[in-house]
């Protein structure tokens, strides 16, 4: 009888301990949510590598979403919780800052506009403007205002006016806005957007970032990637806005020598002083 009472007491003690254990676990601090990064689509491949290097060095977990910078800015304005915004221009982060989001806009990279041309199309940097103006050449761009790439393409068209009277209006009128808009068709999963647009022959010449051209050419080797002539050259300053101080470490890493080296390996130039 005595042994039975002892055994019963031990069993009850074990049950009490087992019941107490989940309470101890639930009282622990939950895992920290990942930092929410929103970045320009042109940064996707490079920034994924930057983020991986950041976390490997002990940085916080990061959840990244990419898209046209103008659309991302609108989502932030509409209340989406974002810690860090990396834009393909300075205007969108500066607009957010003026509206009370974040404290300082920092330039962190620079890009250039290039022309993607169909294989077999007879065009060089020197003859590019004449080719763009040719009536039988289909010109493609991204969507202005929604995507800075489209704004930069239209800026190049404005520069063309100094070379050929009427060129700016003609080019803007004929340009097909094929990417970067809220309703722009998406490429198949895992396929580069610009390689897809050109392979599907949606344009004969497409103006986009040189870094996009490099990535597209990896999938579509015959694709021509041309520098714009000096008279049409347009550069793109990329801006970084810390909205939540928890993301300051990631922002610092992006502008650090290691972060800049990764961006440079994808064709991005270091930021210029503004």
From TrEMBL:
The keyword Magnesium does not apply. GO terms for biological process: molybdate ion transport. Gene3D superfamilies: Periplasmic binding protein-like II. Coiled coil: none annotated. Residues 1-20 form the signal peptide. One of its GO terms (molecular function) is molybdate ion binding. Keywords: Metal-binding, Signal. It holds the Pfam family SBP_bac_11. InterPro entries: ModA, ModA/WtpA. Belongs to the bacterial solute-binding protein ModA family. This is Molybdate ABC transporter substrate-binding protein.
